[in-house]
Fold these 4 entries.
Entry 1:
Amino acid sequence: MDFQWTRDQKMIEKNVREFMVKEIAPIAEEIDQNDKIPKYLWPKMGELGFLGLSISDEYGGFGYDTVTYTIMMEQMARVCPALALSVGASSNLCAHNLERNGNEEQKQKYLPRLCSGEMIGCLGLTEPDAGSDAVGIQTTADRDGDDYILNGSKMFITNGPESDLALVYAKTNMEKKSKGITAFLVEKEFPGFSYGKKLDKMGHRGSATGELVFSDCRVPIQNVLGEVDMGVRVMMNGLDVERVIVAGMALGVGEAALELSLEYAQGRHQFGQPISNFQLVKAKLANMYTEMEAARGLVYRAASLADRSDRGGKGTELHKLAGAAVLFTAEAASRAVTDAVQIHGGYGYTMEYAVNRLYRDAKLYEIGAGTSEIRRLLIADELLKN
């Protein structure tokens, strides 16, 4: 399947790439070392249209499809996976889910500010004791007049410590289990909402990850996202697109590993010749290229199917394909960065070379947004269902 980008898609790919190379590449190591994305980048990315790329123009976005959004995320991750992760958490996990499931008042209130970079969004689902078992969350929400009172905590939340708006899942009916979950839009100023510790991660440094704490947090009833006790519908609604986008980011990391390896192998000389002449180095480069091209086919086929599914396509096929895309691409990216470090030798083991950062970043794609083990179960269950 040969994917030919439209004129707009080619322009967006070029613009994102140029921005990342010019604005972000010079400070990528600084972002990693300081574990901080400069705040000024958010309104700048908003002005360029990156934060609202897939949001309808009536809410401050541009209304592009999943394929176009994935192109952007791939290009971001090629230069700075941490920035790509934070952008994805705000613009996809928060804003996109809000647009799909929110009412008109909620969308008018929050989406323009998320698209402009005035607000940073996050998704609060994972808890200290509920990761892959998402429906096992223990955060509660009890009705009190015109408000809900939230109690509990969320962990491993991308953008959590710096977010202005959190899309949070809580149990409104503990006895109903998965059928008693509700989604809420929680502003950072709401009383009883605070940030816990910021986590010190080995990879994706700069993309703030931490804990959200709710201690009798009062959330107005108008900030219920979707229907009460129907939060699982909101949760599942965007999972396939999330998997496609994570796969796109992993693809960008694998491509960057190949680019750096090609450059280094041709410039590094041993025994009187560039190491790119050595057969075992050539084999690694060939394997990296082959797996990234195979991953590209999976990622963009899944992205294309996601767009068709929005128009009435087959959801079951998308579940399988999105799961396969993120499973294969995440593991292929990990293999690519491992080979890239090996090609760089001792230099690849130092903090001075970008390949070290990619090596640390890549592992997340096998863990976040569902582990590789859970993805395999998901794919198998869909196969057996038919």
Entry 2:
Amino acid sequence: MYQIKGKEKIFIYTGPDGSGRKTIAKMVATAFDMQTVLSYTTRSPRHYEKDGEDYHFVDVETFKLMQEQQEFLESVEIDGYYYGIREEDIVQVFQKHPLIYLTLNPEGAEKLEKMYGERIMSFFIFADRETVIQRQKERQDPEEDIQRHMAHYDETMGYKKNYKHVFENYDSPQVAFQISELIEAFLDRGVIVTDY
């Protein structure tokens, strides 16, 4: 497992699909020279997603091989699809940027929090059921995808109580601003003076 060093920090965004996690994460990232690390997944790209921009889309065979070679820092299976974060990707991004962010489902988020503890700051982003459905319709997700996501809505919302930083996303720029202020304070606290 990669050991996080010095000023390196990981920020995790989790919550129900359609809550606007990625939108907010991207907004916050621009204020902090923060880079993302993309997950690998075996599901097909949605019509608005690009390989290498939203996810690394791979077939099951490739994913299983990567698992066997222990390339993933964490991986989960949801609805028959696999998702994983490759350790090497985190190592490479950390070489150029001390701050990285990930958009993960709660299971993946919990695994990383157990590994890295206070080196991680996590945000639970949610919206009410109707808003989430509306957003998925607006991005033209197929009906079966929406139903699949909504089948997990209550289960995902059940994780909300485990999070210190919870935001209802009714206004993305506003939430991004609030999160940026929290990160600012977190990074200031992380300044350790060692020259006694």
Entry 3:
Amino acid sequence: MDINDRFKDYKRIVIKVGTSTITYPNGKLNLRMIERLCWMLSDLKNRDKEVVLVSSGAIGVGSKSLGFEKRPKLTREKQAAAAVGQAILMQIYQNFFNTYTQTVAQILLTKTDFEHGVRRTNTENTFTELLSRGIIPIVNANDTTSTFEIEFSDNDRLAANVAALLHSDLLILLTDIDALYDSDPKKNPDAKRVKIVEKITEEIEQMAGTAGSEFSVGGMATKIAAAKLCVENGVDMVIADGSDATIIEKVIDGEDVGTLFIGKN
């Protein structure tokens, strides 16, 4: 399979960053990483790509502002942290994107926005209008009002739902591990990277890890679940190392990085 040929015509791209990607282990924001991310996404826009950013981190960032040492456990605490953290995140994203003359919009979603017919249509129409006007939507779960998302969901699956809703060409999940491996590379130095997945088998589903930090909730299992949703909806998906935002350009240019899941035609 010629990856370069597959990627060169991609137009609509969703990028998801996890809490561990945009924060330090202590829960504080990694401003250098966020700035590079905004630079890279702005450059994709300059290449005439349509870009959607799905960003975790609101609860983690809000938790630090509210004085929590770890991710809070009570729903009301998580909702309060999300309310504070989302405002902080959007202000920082806005400031960095302004540097590159890019306009952004905030979209907060719940599960109902994807399941209810009218709300699903309205959500898709909003995205379509924003993208047609060259605006970068920044998406997060509406954790302040939706306890379902806090307790049972994750932003990997949120990103996959967004990618499917928008009939996107590609979803890139930036995470704290550079790819899917046949075993845990943190425990097994001989673990082998899985370069391409053309079918998600039971063996692939068993290749799962755990959450990366005190302030993040997703592990490799959530990424495989997201991949299944993408594959079924004809969207390609890549798991890649989020420690350097330039990995996005490498993925788009078809370099041999991360793990590519092939969407059904």
Entry 4:
Amino acid sequence: MRAINPGKGRLILVIAAAVFLLPVLVPAWHLLQKTGGAFSLPRDESFLQLSTAKALAFRHIWGVGLFNFESASPSLLYPLLLAAVFFIFGAHLVIIPILNAVIGIILLSAIQKWLSKRGTRPVNQLFVLLAVIVLTPLPLMVISGMESPLLLLFAFLFVSRLSDEWTMPAFSRRTLIYGALLVASRYDGALLVAGASLLLIFRRKWLEAFELVLWSLLPILAFGIVSVFKGSYFLPNPFMVGPAGSMLSYDWLLGCGLAVALPLLSRWHIKRLDRKTTWVAGLTALCFSLLIMTRNLYAFRETSRSSVRIYRQEYPAGQFVRRYYYHQSIVSDDMSVLSYLAEGQYVDLSGLASVKVARSKVHHFFSPRLVHQLSDEQNTQVAIITDRYDHGLPERWVRTASWEIPAYDQSGKKTFNFYGMDSGVAITLKRNLENYAPYLSRDITVQYYYFPPR
């Protein structure tokens, strides 16, 4: 293998990093222009991760509330990493894209070093890095505020290390640790480990497959035991109450596989294939790449719109709770942004952040009576329910007011309904809503339903 000039390697990495960061800065600038300088994220799930990280950093509790253990994150490692950063710098949304961008640059550096050790030409190295950026797509992962860059980093480290040691009699300790970190980054990584283990079993390497599975699943097993001991499920709540397959996404794996594998076809491999097979494989790869790129461009545009939508539709209720009910108990079916902007004890009617609600939905005994019982247990005074909630509410609750927030782009309008647990709470709630009304955007329609007697 020819040695690659380190100076050229650094230049390639600088070019790739610039191409990677530019698509991150453009949507961020567009978002700040639309929101008056306020930063937001495009996905509701990311705010639950941030709430978990805040609780872990400042209250040493795994959950989104003040006291209870609630597993609302599909990742174990990402909230821990965020908690460490929040503890040092404070909980600020702008930290999320900065942290994900740093992880993305570390990923590009790891791929470049791996290619350089194999004598890949600098031009091909740059092509691979650009393909990884475009096909995964890495900038979209940074903006999403999720754990995808961390997952992709450990997926590459695990697979690359595994390929280097595939013919050895045993795997090194580093490979097994990478497998554990991959699964800890997100539970979906267990399927990648399962695929590698099946290949080992096919080659009759039973002991190596068992060791790989045991080490990789160790984070899930340890956290699952603690979670069950705390009264929760073995798996996080999103995997229990969410629709089947809604938490699983493997576009990043397909994109990274195409980006890394195809450009590495050496002349020796091509010579062993006839010309017809080479053309068919090349055209198939090109079609897949174009399809993924088209889908990613559409997702990139939708991500920017989703960030603005969440700021316009979700932030008003969260900021209201932050001002008047910061450390109090709240019932809601839309807890993501609310739990991040405020700090309190929550009854999440979706079940993502409340294990008792999740258990009632899994075993089909969720009812208005149970909602009233849970709210009484936590001494809840106020409920904020959206118009998309399709279950009944306790009859004793007093509907006080509603905010109708207009549609943004193609999202449709959204209405928040505010309830007091009794008439006394409703009086205070209405007064707070009236005091906060001047801070609302002019396009939000406010309507009051409770008028206490003089």
